[in-house]
Amino acid sequence: MTAIGKILVVDDEPAIRRLVRGALERGGYTVVEGATGRDALNALPIDKPDLVLLDLGLPDRDGLELVPLIRARSTARVIIISARDQTSEKVAALDLGADDFVTKPFDTEELLARIRTSLRHQLSSESDAPVVEVGEVRIDLAMRRVERAGAEIRLSPKEYGFLAELAKRPGRVLTHVQLLRGVWGPAHDDDVEYLRVVVRSLRQKLGEGGMALIRNEPGVGYRLG
Questions:
Q1: pTM
Q2: Calpha distance 143→175 (Å, rounded)
Q3: pLDDT, tens digit, for every residue of 115-128?
Q4: Which of 1, 39, 147, 179 could pair covalently with 34 via S-S, beta carbons 3.0-4.6 A apart?
């Protein structure tokens, strides 16, 4: 089987690394392992992974400290895999630059699905992807135009702004605060109800598949696709 991507698994538990390695190799990925933060940072320039699966409870430093360092040194996507299930931890990781967060214990098929979603959009940077397509929906960021199956969907400025924020970072979870600041400005950091209203309206306008297009991460935020 031809490898379809290289993934760096950073976790200090050998049993977790074996479990994840087995699932990833069955999925066609090349796997590199590390047990510490030092291992992770050393592997970036040598192995050049496409994606990093990062545990937060590492023996030499907190994984949260590593997220911005990885983002500064690599273009790899970052998915957190951690037993920490507090919403505050998830939000902190995402605000620091992680793309997704999977809580232990996890289903390996769900993990593989999250990886596929993240890697599918890896070539689309936050600024050089004027057109994003997810299923039948086409979002033209340059023209500020949204279509479904070729028909234009009329959106309000806030609806478009919300969808555009997600489209600029396809596959990545954006926190409530990131979305509120991006669309409404920093004075509205706590107005989560604004997001709920816009999401309900958007899903209705997008029609069948709207729920799958705009995915909710409860208590954390939203992602596209």
A1: 0.75
A2: 26
A3: 988 887 654 444 45
A4: 39
